[in-house]
Amino acid sequence: MKKQILVGLCLLAAQLTFAQESITLFNGKNLDGWVNHGEEKWFVEDGELICESGPKGEYGYLSTDKFYKDFELTLEFKQEADGNSGVFIRSTFEGTKVTGWQVEVAPPGKDTGGIYESYGRGWLIKPDPEKDKALKMGEWNTMKIRVEGPKVTSWLNGVEMVHLEDEKIGEGEGAIALQIHDGGGIRVKWRNIELIPLD
What we know:
Blueprint: H1 2-19, E1 23-24, E2 34-37, E3 41-45, E4 48-52, E5 60-67, E6 71-81, E7 85-94, E8 97-105, E9 115-118, E10 122-125, E11 140-148, E12 151-156, E13 159-165, H2 167-171, E14 175-180, E15 186-197
Antiparallel strand pairs: 1-15, 2-5, 3-4, 4-15, 5-14, 6-11, 6-15, 7-8, 7-14, 8-9, 9-10, 11-12, 12-13
């Protein structure tokens, strides 16, 4: 009996270890594993993923070629110029029309860490304005996003920005994507994009 319990515990431990294995989404060399939507510029330089506005200054997205449902995503971003961007979860695309939810990345005072539903209900939740001081404009920032069923939580540099439970998000399926906002003049750098599956 003790042996069976021990074997069971070992199997459980192995499953938990496997479930917590980190996946590197950006290899620091090229855009393998990603899909470009639109005409904005996405390229790799000095081990960093860079997005810049193209000549038309329209919306652009770079999405994973795989879908991810429940996960914890950690990444770093550095806003240069305008810096208006975002991280999409459980999202699908038709050209540059996106169906999904964005965790905002924006200049100071523009609700970084909040959750916005594109082509839908708009803002679902914004952080308390006081939390905006967690953002370091022009420096590297660490964002963490945890998505599990209908629950989404975002952190910026260790500060919890928002927590939301939403049935529609819970039903969503799709890719993770980085956004470049329209308007032109935007440049954002990304690095260390790591995902831990939770399912």
